[in-house]
Amino acid sequence: MSIEKYKIEEFNQSLLKDHQRKLDFIVAGLPGAEGILQKLADFQVAIPSWALGTGGTRFGRFSGGGEPRSLEEKIEDVGLLHALNRSSGAISLHIPWDIPSKPASIKALAAQHGIRFDAMNSNTFQDQPGQAESYKFGSLQHVRKEVRKQAIDHNIEVIRYGEELGSKSLTVWLSDGSCFPGQLNFRQAFQHTLEGLKEIYAVLPADWKMFVEYKAFEPNFYSTTVGDWGQSLLYTSKLGPKAYTLVDLGHHLPNANIEQIVALLLMEGKLGGFHFNDSKYGDDDLTVGSIKPYQLFLIFNELVEGMDARGMNHATDLGWMIDASHNVKDPLEDLLQSVEAIMLSYAQALIVDLDRKKLVSAQQANDTVAAQEILQNSFRTDVRALVAEARRRAGGALDPLGLYRHEKIREQLMKKRGAGAVATGL
Ligand code: RM4
Ligand code: MN
Ligand code: MN
Q1: Which residues does 50 contact at the CB level (< 8 Å), separation at least 6?
Q2: How far is the CA of 247 from the centre of ligand 2 (A)?
Q3: Which of 130, 236, 316, 380 is found 20 to 30 A from 59 (Cα to Cα)?
Q4: Atom in ligand 1 nearest the alpha carbon of residue 121
Q5: Beta strands of 282-415 (E only): which ranges?
């Protein structure tokens, strides 16, 4: 199903007066607003195919119904999001959850919705039916060569699928690690993993990137073989210029200073991309910006400053992806909220730029109070009308969530796909 243009326009019309008033207010105090609107319009966030259905915990899964039953329907769902917010023009697939049996028609369908394929994700954290070797004790780190080879071959297969779809990157997230002291020889696990990553890297097409995603713990609870940004950076530095570190916001130990990690990875030219989500305790995979919006802003502040320092293109030089799981919300509503939170933080970071000189002087003068004022002034600025205007100009809805509800999209999807339709994935 899709949403007709006239419905978006009609809905926008009903909100226009109020929107204009708010927009005039912010633009009046913002020199360079046009440039910011353009940057916002260019910025696209990839939707993870595995977040289009309800996730679950190890205790249960409560499906909301109308979930996509196939890769085609997942693309259709991302198409809906993109039609509403014009900022979700990409999808990130997970193999084997999303094997494209007919890649040409999948590619055509995505193009029809204005969607491209962001990073491909491999899966060596679950055993698949009929698989020869088990990943119970790891994949690339495994003590047995046969298991390592199976994991390498799988990653190569994922690259091949990605090539057919026009993707340009592979994300490797390994659950490898150990649950108890003594279980693993750390150096051997690292070396095996590095050798495996090297073999995968060797077949990476010239214009591809490899993202090595780290995670502090879970499913292993004593050690993780790519456990933090230092370990990821070690692998990616040894692999070569096409290898980068991927930061998933939920993959740190509590209270880690993620913005500092981001700043240093950018400085080294080794930041590849992001998995956005939010968390209170661990890898909670909650809606972006729902728990720590100030942290998200501080991360974007470093991103904008660091990318500008290196002359990078905000929209295309890093991989912007969401990685989330929804237990109680409608997945599409949750994703609309997440993309909105990302756009708002990005917009707030862009307006710091106007003051960037003042921030530098405050830092040079050790004026801690002024530095804080400058950052919090941006964070406390209501930029919602700016983000909405960028969306409106691109043909999207002023209020995507409002229109989604007004059009009763979930009800329509349930009617079409069935109240019990459950998506593949986590
Ligand atoms: C992991 C990690 C990966 C994601 C899987 C589903 O915790 O975040 O990025 O692909 O979950
Ligand atoms: Mn992730
Ligand atoms: Mn995760």
Answers
A1: 94, 97, 325, 423, 424, 425, 426
A2: 8
A3: 130
A4: 10
A5: 319-322
Residues 6+ apart with CB under 8 A from 371: 359, 362, 363
98 CB near ligand 1 (under 6 Å): no
Two structure tokens written together for 343:
């756009």
- Provide CB contacts within 8 A for 91, sequence distance 6+: 46, 47, 48, 49, 74, 75, 78, 110, 115, 116, 117, 118
Ligand 1 binding pocket mutation candidate from 213, 225, 246 (most atoms within 8 A of CB): 213
Q: Are 392 and 12 within 8 A, CB to CB? A: yes
pTM exceeding the 0.85 threshold for the entire prediction: yes
How does residue 426 score in pLDDT terms, banded at 50, 70 and 90?
low
One-letter amino acid at 224 equals T
DSSP H or E stretch at residue 119: strand 116-121
Strands (E), 215-269: 223-224, 243-248
Largest interatomic CA distance in the chain: 66
SS3 340: helix
Residue 107 has pLDDT above 70, yes or no: yes
* Helix-strand-coil split of the chain, %, nearest 5: 50, 10, 40
Whether residue 67 contacts residue 77, with contact meaning beta carbons closer than 8 Å, is answered with no
Q: How confident is the model at residue 355 (pLDDT cuts 50, 70, 90)?
A: low
pLDDT in tens, 253-279: 999 999 999 999 999 999 999 999 999
Whether residue 49 contacts residue 94, with contact meaning beta carbons closer than 8 Å, is answered with yes
DSSP label of 118 = E
Are 318 and 45 within 8 A, CB to CB? no
Kindly give the distance from the C-alpha atom of residue 272 to the centroid of ligand 1, in angstroms, as a whole number: 16
Hey, what's the torsion of the CAs at 34, 35, 41, 44, to 10 degrees? -160
Residue whose token pair is 């071959």? 153
Task: Identify each DSSP E strand in 185-242 by its residue range.
Answer: 209-213, 223-224
pLDDT in tens, 56-92: 888 998 888 999 999 999 999 999 999 999 999 999 9
Task: Report whether pLDDT(353) > 80.
Answer: no
